[in-house]
Amino acid sequence: MNKLIFKLFYSKMFFGLFFVLLIVLLGGCNQITGKATEQVPKETNKNPEVYFCPGDDCSKVFEYHITSANLSVYCAFYDINLKNMISSLSRKSKIIDVKLVIDSSNYKEQLKGDGVKLDDNGQLMHNKFCVIDNNIIITGSFNPTDNDNNYNNNNIVVVYSKILAKNYKDEFNELWNGKFGEGNNVEYPILYINNRKIENYFCPEDKCASHIANLIKNAKSSIYFMAFSFTNEEIADALIDKNNLDIRGIFDSQQSSNKYSQLKRLQEFGLNVKKDSNKYKLHHKVFIIDNETVATGSFNPTLSADTKNDENLLIMHDKKIADAFIKEFESLWEK
């Protein structure tokens, strides 16, 4: 009996020491690799909103949120000429912190002031977003210009999220401090808002084209897209490899005449893609995957957008949002 108790005691002590050693080793591995277990942030907030111009007045959505701001408004626009937008930013700058970064090629005299900065001409500052009160993000394909608001086909999404706002504010601060065409990787590339997954990337540092290509590679049933400029071969190759799926795509008719456009190549591989019929521009930069995931933002599927320009990409895994974009897609497809 004493021998049995002795064996049991040392067996328990051995296993206890083994588990302690295992924990120490695992902790050591984390220290060696420099990688800690990170939780994907989750947040509860208002659901995102989607608008499509020119059917919706996109400028009014921006104007409403700018006018309603209590703390700050930080915007990065490739171009801006709408008087209501310029006026609302100007009025609000007298009360709260308002800053604007625009591409130098689109500078206008009425935009001068301490709260305005230009890019350095080394690339396009092609973003189209605002961060409102560190809690609201408005982004999409829409420039606040007369053409984009009233004639070109565009989209904006309004997302309520402190986490996502931090991503966009960090990007804005890089631009404001003169860091163009480069930057740090996004802090929260994946997050959940109301249990819906959202991905967020900024080009060129986060390699936006690879994220679009991966979405396409993992598609199960359908891929629809609307593209103002589409010259990126990596994304085109991914579409060709998924030719067994339901694929439909709309190209802007003017941009598709570019010798690097992938329209003709995709057609030659039998994909169901065509030019739009808007006599102005199809300015969307949208991919809809399996009727449940949408990628949008300022990012055109081009080499320059992926490797040179300042861009942003938002991927929303949300069927309700996807349904809204599918409705827009079908409307333009039928035309």
Explain this structure.
- Residues 1-37 have low confidence and may be disordered.
- This protein has one domain (44-334): Endonuclease, Chain A (2-Layer Sandwich).
- Strands 1-9-10-16-15-14-11-12-13 form a nine-stranded mixed sheet, sandwiched between helices.
- It contains ten helices and 16 strands.
- It has helices at residues 2-33, 58-68, 83-93, 146-150, 162-176, 208-217, 233-241, 263-268, 303-307, 319-334; strands spanning 42-43, 49-53, 72-77, 97-102, 116-118, 128-132, 136-140, 154-160, 190-193, 196-203, 222-227, 246-251, 272-275, 285-289, 293-297, 311-317.
Summarize the structure.
With 335 residues, the chain is α/β, with parallel strands linked by helices. The chain is built from ten helices and 16 strands. The longest helix has 32 residues, at 2-33.
CATH superfamily: Endonuclease Chain A
Radius of gyration: 24 Å
Q: What is the ordering of alpha helices and beta strands? A: HEEHEHEEEEHEHEEHEHEHEEEHEH
Distance linking N and C termini? 90 Å
Shape: globular
The neighbouring-strand order within the major sheet is: 1-9-10-16-15-14-11-12-13
CATH topology: Endonuclease, Chain A
SS class: alpha/beta
Q: How many alpha or pi helices?
A: 10
| CATH architecture annotation | 2-Layer Sandwich
Q: What integer is the average pLDDT?
A: 90
Helix content: 25-40%
**How many distinct domains?**
1
Question: What is the CATH class designation?
Answer: Alpha Beta
Q: Flag low-confidence runs.
A: 1-37
Major sheet size, sense and barrel closure: 9 strands, mixed
